[in-house]
Design brief:
Elements (H helix, E strand, L loop, with lengths): L22 E3 L6 E5 L4 E4 L2 E4 L10 E11 L2 H6 L7 E5 L6 H13 L7 E3 L18 H15 L17 E13 L2 E4 L5 E3 L12 H5 L1 H4 L2
Parallel strand pairs: 4-8
Antiparallel strand pairs: 1-2, 2-3, 4-7, 5-6, 5-8, 8-9, 9-10
Length: 221
């Protein structure tokens, strides 16, 4: 079996890895890659930074939390009695603390407002600062979590007889970096103002991205 070298296909730098990591981020060029187990190659994962809607607070660490966002088909929304949101928003970190993860995901998914302006990471490559956070949760696992969340959000749906073969054909999957302030034991996101306990990230120290967030306007979001 041929092994895939964990080197960035763009700049050839060694990619940081860990046993739980499914997505790899290059510290040199900030590009994100996923391992295609069938093609046995690294595939580029497009990602974008959500521009904060709320002002950056002067105190606290400004961090970017990776999220998987996916569209719920209209047919599925109708079959749920219009009780499902149009988009599921699943944190890509914190799988070991699934109760916190799903609670925050539900809060953010229930907000009907769109996510608003964003900036591709490639526009920030020339801006000094840390690389984006690696996603612990792969896209396939995010689909499973989104389906679990849908079942929690709509009790008694779908009918029990349909559960064995039931699945949601999500579309428009993308990885986004969600601006948050980390302070006083909480992660508070800066789009809608929803917060979760910082126990979600455990002992992981999220990089301070305040300078890069403040640079969004200068690079042309």
């Amino acid at each position: 079996m041929n092994l895939v070298a964990l080197k960035c296909p763009h700049c050839a730098r060694e990619l940081p890895s860990a046993p739980e990591r499914r997505i790899f981020v290059c510290d040199e060029c900030s590009r994100t890659w996923r391992l295609d187990s069938i093609a046995r190659a690294l595939e580029l994962v497009p990602r974008r930074i959500l521009n904060p809607v709320r002002p950056l607070p002067p105190a606290g660490r400004i961090v970017l939390v990776p999220f998987w966002c996916m569209t719920v088909p209209e047919e599925t929304i109708r079959s749920s009695g219009n009780r499902l949101p149009s988009e599921m928003r699943i944190p890509a970190i914190g799988l070991q603390r699934s109760a916190l993860l799903l609670r925050w995901a539900e809060q953010l998914s229930r907000v009907r407002d769109p996510l608003g302006e964003s900036t591709p990471w490639r526009k920030l490559e020339s801006t000094p600062g840390p690389a984006p956070e690696p996603a612990e949760i792969a896209a396939e696992d995010a689909y499973d979590l989104a389906e679990l969340l849908a079942l929690q959000m709509v009790k008694g749906w779908p009918p029990e007889a349909e559960l064995e073969n039931w699945e949601i054909p999500f579309s428009s999957l993308e990885l986004v970096d969600w601006p948050c302030v980390h302070r006083r034991g909480e992660l508070e996101e800066l789009i809608f103002g929803r917060a979760t306990a910082d126990a979600l990230v455990g002992d992981r120290v999220l990089a301070d991205q305040r300078y890069r967030i403040q640079s969004l306007e200068s690079v042309g979001a």
